[in-house]
């Protein structure tokens, strides 16, 4: 009896990965074994960097809030401490947006906690 192989599924699996590595340099986009390694490494980086992205954005928001707070005569840590003490529940993303795009509104928030 001849050996049975599911060539249809194997080819589909390979085509899927080769399609995802399309555009890579040289053999990384069209040689199966190299493309598979490229794809797997890319997925590892994507998983890791979805978490890193959150970390980076929080740091950016803190820098922007600090810059806005210093224009209003206080530091970031003092501002956040006074906001917590005054029970003003506003997150860093919104505070950073106010500091960048709406300086008058951010100054009003700073005035509340002074």
Shape: rod-shaped
Q: Mean pLDDT score, rounded? A: 95
Task: Domain count, please report it.
Answer: 1
CATH architecture: Orthogonal Bundle
* Number of E-type strands: 0
CA-to-CA gap between the ends? 86 Å
CATH class group: Mainly Alpha
The largest sheet, given as strand count, sense and whether it forms a barrel, is:
none
- Helical element count? 5
What does this protein structure show overall?
The chain has helices at 7-20, 32-71, 76-85, 92-101, 103-113. It has 114 residues and is mostly helical. The mean pLDDT is 95.
Notable characteristics:
mainly alpha; single chain; c-terminal domain of poly(a) binding protein; 114 residues
Element layout with pairings:
Blueprint: H1 7-20, H2 32-71, H3 76-85, H4 92-101, H5 103-113
Helix pairs in contact: 1-2, 2-4, 4-5
């Amino acid at each position: 009896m001849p050996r049975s192989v599911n060539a249809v599924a194997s080819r589909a699996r390979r085509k899927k990965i080769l399609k995802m590595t399309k555009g890579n340099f040289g053999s990384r986009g069209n040689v199966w074994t190299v493309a598979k390694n490229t794809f797997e490494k890319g997925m590892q980086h994507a998983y890791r960097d979805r978490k890193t992205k959150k970390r980076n954005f929080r740091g950016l928001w803190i820098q922007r809030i600090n810059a806005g707070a210093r224009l209003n005569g206080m530091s970031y840590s003092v501002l956040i401490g006074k906001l917590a003490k005054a029970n003003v529940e506003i997150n860093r993303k919104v505070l950073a947006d106010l500091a960048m795009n709406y300086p008058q509104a951010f100054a009003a928030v700073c005035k509340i906690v002074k």
